[in-house]
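Quick one: structure for this chain?
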Amino acid sequence: MITTVNLLHEPTRRRPHIVRWWGEPDPETGKQRRYGRSFVSAIEARKFFVEKQSEMDRGKPRDPVDASIEELFAEFEEARLSVLSYASKIGYRLTMRQMLGYFGHRRKVRHIQRRHAEAFVATRKRCDGRSGELSMWAKARHLIHCRAIFAAAIEWGYTEDNPFRATRYGGNSPLRIRPKGRPWHHITPEQFMQLLAVVPSARQRAALWFMYGCGLRPGEVYNLMVANVDLERRRVHVVNRAATPTVPPFTVKAEGQSTESKERSVPIPNAAIPDIAEAMKSAFKSGGFLTLTPRRYERVQEHWRLCQANEGWSGHTWRPWQNRDMLNNLLRDTKKFLQRADMALSAPFTLQTFRKSFAQNHADAGTPPRTLAKLLGHANTRVTMQYYNRVTDANERAADDAMNRLLSQNRRVTTA
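Got it. Here's what it folds into:
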């Protein structure tokens, strides 16, 4: 039986560096099946050669595992989805369900090639019964899920290539989706003060301050308790909270979940202190929650009791508790305040507009990207940089003034 791995070089091939090895002998014929993988780079080929020889020396299977996508999905569900959030699990399961419907339950993982992957992504349609094409954002989510699933398949030895990974060629490929971000209106500090003037209660104003002045997400704001705010040092602490029989949990970032949400401590603007201090005085009526009304706190307790009893609430079937379950009609109320303030917006309003405006204000003020990423709870600056790449009218005017001053000074020096 041949047990060695060979590293070959064939210059006439497009991928000239080849690694070849032999599988287990066939029980009937005694013949071994030959396998191979080609590379463009000699370094990649050498690395794979060393890994493959090491695997064989340790007695790992010599033949590729011939698993079906149904078997792959079952293992992916158990090994990878168990640590993800509820919303992420729903998204992955939707993609896997659509892949089973498209490829069939018995299709072998190693038989899915790039052309099949492109066809799958290109043919995605709405599954909610509504008419119209599926958005590029939704197709991109399917693509991200497919790439993650097949990356795991490579690690587990089910296949050698990820058919959903885009190449540098093929600019029109569905695997090169780049969804455009949705337009949003940058709320300036002047507009925010105009909005605060029509908000009647300190509790509601404090919630807006936390979103606009501290960059917190709505789910983070409505889970804040008195213990999370340090007025003396002007800091708000966004941290995980364990569940109790009467208080639901709050998860900023569970182990192994999204890399874009982190526990953090954020400065509170001086202008926000009076409203937040007033909201803290009445928080004892709401179990210590800063932005919940007493009535809403009672509803949250009832929903949490039903959740612990594995019963549905608010007309929905049972599901795990989520941060957003603390909110109620927040978007509706905020839109009413915007109308009262007579604010004209250039794009549809969402609650994330406050957080985005917080980030844009810092970017316009020259805050270093790494500092802003820390304030927002981002794992890196990749997402944060979108605010530095967004040229506002004020930034453009400032750049124009700076260039005019520079050139005018140099002109005076030259003429003198």
